[in-house]
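User: I'm preparing a small set of examples for a lab meeting where we compare how different chains pack in three dimensions. I only have the primary sequence for this one, and I'd like the structure in token form so I can line it up with the others. Please keep the answer compact; I'll paste it straight into my notes.
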Amino acid sequence: MAEERQKRRKEREAAIRRPENAARLFDSAKEKPVRRKPGGAEPDQPARARAERLPESDAAAQARASTNPVQIGSVISEKGRRIDRPRRERPEVPEGAELVREVNNRFIFQTNNTYFIERPREERFIIGAREVYYEELPRSRQREVVVRPDGTRIVTIRNRWGDVVRRVKILPDDREIVLVYVEDDHYDEVLEWRDPGLDLPPLDLDIPVRDYILDAEWVEDPEDYYTFLDQPPVEQVERTYSLDEVRRSARIRDKVRRIDLDIINFEFGSAQIPESEIGKLEGVAEAMQRLLKENPGETFLIEGHTDAVGAEVANLALSDQRAEAVATALTNVFDIAPENMETQGYGEQYLKVETQEPERENRRVAIRRITPLIAPVASVE
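Assistant: Understood. Below is the structure token output for the 381-residue chain.
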């Protein structure tokens, strides 16, 4: 049996050929140059680092960031003042970003010579909640508490820009599971949308493509999803990043491997998943369930991507809606808790195949396990 599977794997690998017009492997290598501010100097580009030995675990990947043990206090210990639900109809625009358009309650910004989409992200969390309340905290922060029917609380703290700086799941027995943790030294740094990846050299990785990207089209055994998602980052993680830093920085996301779900077929221009396609999520959903059983603090990033046909801004909004549709299906059909998923659309920015023509491989949803980027390993082990 093992010999037959190995033979099929070799045959499958022989059949997989990157097309001649395949885009670069890493999303950070596909980005437009950072736009220089008027009168400013060109941003420094760190020299390319030599490829290092791949970390063998999440803890090993965070070794450089873990010289001092992380002491995480209770997320509900700080006293707050009850307030009405904050209105986020028009988000405050941080320095370095320009609000250019609103599409279906999604706000499109231009920053660093590219477009980025934002939206109110708490909607998936509060569906079916027993209670939701908000509190004002010192330093212009807000705390949102979502109480589930079983007594589980999802506590999220945001800074003045709405960026998540803490997120914790509190179980009915009062045990706290850290989902997102921004170190105090970086708590108030978000004065502009600066890409932390600019401080890093280009990623130099000497592993086969199949070990970095798993194409769902070629998955024969659902176990492959679990094995792939369970792997650690491909390089060191300098510090725990904020959820929004990860969403905005391709270079930081490139630290973790990705699954390309190019098997989900959306109707042209639609974000709705046809009923016939839902079952195709079962394999990856079972892998996510298994990982969450082992560690309830896991977070998965669901990315939406389009081809280059159509307007760039429209594609950005469509890709964001598709990513959200997949996350919603994973919750409604496969019982993946919404707080364990984050969604983001990237439109046509990160093409898999370099073409301006219609291309199925570019119309995809991708999944990454970003836990080691946003939470200290010690807090979830």
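A couple of notes for your slides: The chain has one domain: 2-379. The chain has a mean pLDDT of 84.

User: Perfect, thanks.
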